[in-house]
Task: structure prediction
Amino acid sequence: MNNAARFMGLVMMFVFGFVTIGHAASLDDSKALGKQAAAFAKANGREKAIAEMMNPKGKFVKGGLYVVLQDTRGVVLANPMDPGRVGTHDLELKDVDGKPFIKEMIGIVKSKGSGWITYKWTNPATKKIQLKKSWVQQVEGTDMYTLCGVFQ
Result:
C-alpha cells in the first residue's frame, strides 16, 4: 500500500471515530449541561436561573445544545432559543404521534428526579420533525426542572 493510500485510510478512521464519539458525547453533554443548569438554579434561585437560562450566549448554551427551564405545572420559565414560549402552559402538549411528553417529563422528575425521554419535535436547524432525546433534571427543593436534548 502506498503512503497516500495509508494516509487516506488513517484519515477515514479518524473521521469515522470522531463522528461516532461525537454522537455519544452529545448525549453525555446534554445530560451534563442539564445537571449543571439544575445545580446553578438550586444555588442561585429562580430569578437568577431564569436570567442566565434566557441568555442565548450564556453558560447554558453550547453549540447546538441549550437548556430549557420549566416548572412542574408545565409552564416554560426560560428558553433561550425561543423566548416567545416563555409563560406558555405546555402541560397538554403532545408530539406528532400524540405522546404527552411534557406530562411524561414531569412524571420522571417527580418519581425519579431525573432521566431520559424520547419524543418527536421540530428540529430548528432542519425545520423537520425528528426524534429528540432529552435529559430532564429536577432542581432540588423547587417545582422547577431543566431539560436539554439532542436530535437523533
The beta strands are 61-62, 65-66, 68-71, 76-78, 114-122, 129-138, 144-151. The chain has two helices and seven strands. The radius of gyration is 18 Å. Helices lie at 3-54, 101-112.
